[in-house]
Specification:
alpha+beta; five-stranded antiparallel sheet; binds molybdenum atom; globular; binds ligand MTE
């Protein structure tokens, strides 16, 4: 127990100091975040899919808690083993330090310094544990003295005054007996005995429980102070990113495109707070727009570097565009539509001068994501842009502040890098981006799909006319028709509500004459080229789910 406790508080202190140093210098060097991020990157795609599906937005807290649990077990084990074998202290600290440091260094945007918080924290944890175990160790003395002293403790009234007072503190005699038994010094049964006995009268061979607990409490207090400091610094940093975001006055768009037409239903534009979020970032990157810059390099004639100001000085466009995630299951929630404000990418690339053969744009983000986008999609007339505003506000921190990319018609993993810092012109042959390395398709065009939002699955609508409604999407192609089938019967045309462009979802509705009993409702969309959506079920991996969204309802 004593060893495990020492291990826990020592590790807590070391980690807290490491977190404090990281918070004050490079947040990405935090050992917990770095290990968590390394775990995310190393996790096989099917397990990642499972986690996103089963845990949703809780996936990250669950991951961090798991990392914490492993740390707790390692720390307690090291402490317990370290009581007998001091080499275990050095070994445990080395393992933890190496894990944190190598995880931090493995981050794509790492610098050598990122190893320092982990190494320092592990050293502090090791030294602290050594010291605590030293305090927890029995005093050394000749065995004969041990039994003599022990005897006196065990026999109330026949020992020194100190021992007597110890015995009169209400200790059961059994406790005193066991405290007196050499070789049982590790047992928790002696509780209180050593604490009650003064330093001089302390039986040799026992340890000083009070002194140990005081030391452990001191270390635990240090951990709380350091962690509090880390949290405080993070909050100040986060606050300053949020403040600088709040201070930004985005210029008006020079070209506002087609607005959302009248006649769309509620929810056509997704509010920023309701917009789905999918990324691998354990902590939301907090970037100061004043120190942000974008580098355009690789296979270009003129390498460029633009500040946030430079970007805002260029003519901005405003477009309503639907963004969706390749990991979305049939009928799933990872899709949203927003009014985006941004700088068109094509003129920027023209200034940079793309070299022949550069068929891939690799976008890099502040925290090291890489997203590869076909160069053609920036040049074929679609509204591929560097986004600075979302629904009339600066880009929210979670959605890529200060600048993200957006490519209409591509899933997010292939065209929508958040927290953007770099665009490198290269080729698909030369470089695999993050998700492509993990088996996802190099190009990610959105597949035609549709979803029933009303009624909800397993709802109990009343018999009679029931409005069946939802969305369908095929960005870049547009939707020509949506049809609804009841109980596997004929396909009935749904009414389509107006849209601003082919790059947004379409809202549809169909009035169903519902009859009492259980029913299934299915939806299918046909894109504007006349191709119906694929009815065959496919998983999101490797290039987007297919299949018809079908729900069951019981009409009352
Ligand atoms: N830096 C970074 N950008 C990223 C990702 C990421 O993990 N990191 N995920 C991508 C994926 S898979 C999707 S679907 C979209 C989601 O954007 P949103 O969170 O703003 O909805 O961001 C894309 N951009
Ligand atoms: Mo995604």
């Amino acid at each position: 127990m004593r060893g495990s406790l020492a291990g826990l508080v020592a590790a807590g202190f070391g980690v807290a100091v490491a977190e404090l140093l990281a918070a004050a210098t490079r947040p990405e060097a935090s050992p917990l975040v770095a290990v968590g991020a390394a775990v995310i990157d190393a996790t096989p795609t099917p397990i990642k899919e499972f986690a996103v599906r089963e845990l949703g937005t809780h996936d990250k807290p669950v991951l961090l808690a798991s990392v914490g649990l492993v740390l707790i077990l390692l720390a307690a084990g090291t402490g317990a083993l370290g009581r007998r074998h001091r080499w275990a202290v050095a070994a445990g600290a080395s393992v933890l330090g190496a894990a944190g440091a190598s995880a931090a260094l493995s981050r794509p945007a790492a610098i050598p310094f990122d190893a320092v918080p982990s190494l320092l924290g592990a050293t502090i944890a090791g030294v602290t544990l050594w010291w605590l175990l030293h305090r927890a160790a029995p005093a050394t003395a000749a065995p004969s003295t041990v039994s003599a002293d022990a005897q006196s403790v065990a026999t109330p009234g026949m020992g020194s005054a100190d021992v007597q007072s110890a015995a009169t503190l209400g200790m059961a005699s059994a406790d005193v007996q066991s405290a007196a038994t050499p070789g049982e010094v590790d047992s928790d049964a002696r509780s209180g005995a050593a604490a009650a006995v003064s330093e001089e009268a302390r039986p040799v061979g026992d340890f000083d429980r009070r002194r140990f607990l005081q030391a452990a409490a001191l270390v635990a207090g240090g951990a709380v102070v350091a962690e509090g400091g880390a949290v405080g610094i993070r909050r100040i940093r986060g606050g300053s990113a949020a403040r600088s975001r709040a201070d930004i006055r985005l210029p008006a768009a020079a070209d506002v495109g087609r607005p959302v037409p009248p006649g769309t239903g509620p929810g056509f534009v997704t509010g920023n707070g309701d917009f789905y979020r999918v990324d691998t970032a354990l902590t939301v990157p907090r970037i100061d727009p004043d120190s942000w810059s974008l580098r355009i390099h690789g296979m270009v004639g003129n390498e460029m570097r633009l500040s946030f100001e430079d970007l805002l000085r260029r003519p901005l466009v405003e477009r309503v565009i639907t963004l969706n995630c390749v990991s979305n299951e049939v009928g799933g929630p990872y899709i949203g539509t927003a009014k985006w404000l941004g700088v068109p990418l094509a003129p920027l690339l023209a200034e940079a001068g793309i070299k022949a053969g550069a068929d891939q744009i690799v976008a890099r983000s502040a925290e090291g994501m890489t997203i590869g986008t076909p160069t053609a999609t920036a040049l074929d007339g679609r509204d591929t842009m560097l986004v600075v505003g979302m629904n009339g506000e600066p880009l929210p921190l979670e959605h890529g502040f200060p600048v993200r990319m957006l490519t209409p018609g591509l899933y997010g993993y292939a065209g929508a890098c958040k927290w953007l810092t770099e665009l490198e012109l290269t080729t698909f042959a030369k470089f695999d981006a993050y998700w492509v390395e993990r088996g996802w398709s190099a190009e990610g065009p959105v597949k035609t799909a549709s979803r029933i939002d009303k009624p909800r699955p397993f709802a109990h609508p009343a018999a009679g006319p029931v409005t069946v409604a939802g969305v369908a999407w095929a960005q870049r192609r547009g939707i020509r028709a949506v049809e609804v089938s009841v109980d596997g019967g004929d396909w009935n045309r749904a009414e389509l509500l107006p849209v601003p462009s082919i790059d947004t979802w379409v809202q549809w509705r169909y009035t169903w004459k519902a009859t009492t009993g259980p029913h299934s409702l299915a939806v299918r969309a046909t894109d504007a080229t006349g191709t119906p959506q694929t009815a065959t079920r496919a998983t999101p991996f490797p290039n987007g789910a297919t299949g018809l969204h079908t729900i069951a309802v019981t009409v009352a």
